[in-house]
Amino acid sequence: MSLKITDECINCDVCEPECPNGAISQGPDIYVIDPNMCTECVGHYDTPQCMEVCPVDCIITGVEESREVLEERYRIISGQKVA
């Protein structure tokens, strides 16, 4: 797991369309991030776009993952050959 949305989420709807992997969706109470789809925007952007647009800074690092792990997940999600 990389990023996580905390209970401070106000359901403002700005993070979901920013995720290039489709990892963010509406949960029962707040938005949630699918840890199997989140690459912290590795492969797309230099910084996590959801964190950039969140007006209440409720998106945090859950369990830190190395850049290599995030890059491998990006390659799997995007259909690129995994080394």
UniProtKB/TrEMBL annotation:
- Look up and give the organism this protein is from: Thiobacter aerophilum
InterPro entries tied to this protein: 4Fe4S_Fe-S-bd (IPR017896), 4Fe4S_Fe_S_CS (IPR017900), PSI_iron-sulfur_center (IPR050157), YfhL-like (IPR047927)
Query: Which keywords belong to this entry?
Result: 4Fe-4S, Iron, Iron-sulfur, Metal-binding
Annotated 4Fe-4S ferredoxin-type domain residues: 1-29
Name of this chain's protein: YfhL family 4Fe-4S dicluster ferredoxin
SUPFAM superfamilies the record matches? 4Fe-4S ferredoxins
Do you know which PROSITE patterns this protein is assigned to? 4FE4S_FER_1 (PS00198), 4FE4S_FER_2 (PS51379)
Q: Which PANTHER family is this protein grouped with? A: PHOTOSYSTEM I IRON-SULFUR CENTER (PTHR24960:SF79), PHOTOSYSTEM I IRON-SULFUR CENTER-RELATED (PTHR24960)
